[in-house]
Amino acid sequence: MIRPIQREFCAMSTHDLENLITFRLARLVSELNRQSNRLLRQTGGLNVPEWRVVSLLGKGGEMNGRQLGSLARLDPGLLSRTLNGLEQRGLILTTRRPDDRRAVWASLTPAGWDVEKATRPVMLARHERLMASLSSEQQAIILPLIDQLSQTIAAENAASGEE
């Protein structure tokens, strides 16, 4: 006979989960990505990983896949699919250099620059709206707090042998 799950246990587990910073941040990132995907589809026909690549290339010029993956925080498989999709749509051009045939280099095409120029102000305005929802004191500390958490994670990963 299967026993019903006690409500107190479920409520307590949900409550505990709600208090975990990782759960709350993951939920926030999910909500932010859903909103970003909607705005990016409407503006430039992009999704979040594509926008990261287009935005990074718009800011930094030509980059190789390793640089893009690291800066955009995209795993190699997702980066490869993203680059292929952007190239098929004519937004980027990828090349290999004679001195290193393993590395893929990407740069924006004129159409890619158009998409980058169209999406940049939309995403900056969104950032401004989000920041405006915070008090000036909260605005002053939110990015340093995120940086501190990132540094803590990086130090823990390095100590355990992870990248």
Walk me through what this model shows.
The protein is mostly helical and 163 residues long. It has helices at residues 7-18, 21-44, 48-60, 65-72, 76-88, 110-132, 136-159; strands at residues 63-64, 92-97, 100-108. A three-stranded antiparallel β-sheet has the order 1-3-2. The longest helix has 24 residues, at 21-44.
Radius of gyration: 20 Å
Strands in their spatial order, largest beta sheet: 1-3-2
Q: What order do the helices and strands follow?
A: HHHEHHEEHH
Residue fraction in strands: 5-15%
Helix content: over 70%
- End-to-end CA span: 47 Å
The unreliable regions are none
Q: Main beta sheet, described?
A: 3 strands, antiparallel
Instruction: Summarize model confidence as the mean pLDDT.
Output: 90
Q: Structural class given helices, strands, pairing?
A: mainly alpha
Number of strands: 3
Helix and strand arrangement:
Layout: H1 7-18, H2 21-44, H3 48-60, E1 63-64, H4 65-72, H5 76-88, E2 92-97, E3 100-108, H6 110-132, H7 136-159
Antiparallel strand pairs: 1-3, 2-3
List keywords for this structure.
mainly alpha, 10% strand, 7 helices, 163 residues, three-stranded antiparallel sheet
In short:
Helices cover 72% and strands 10% of the residues.
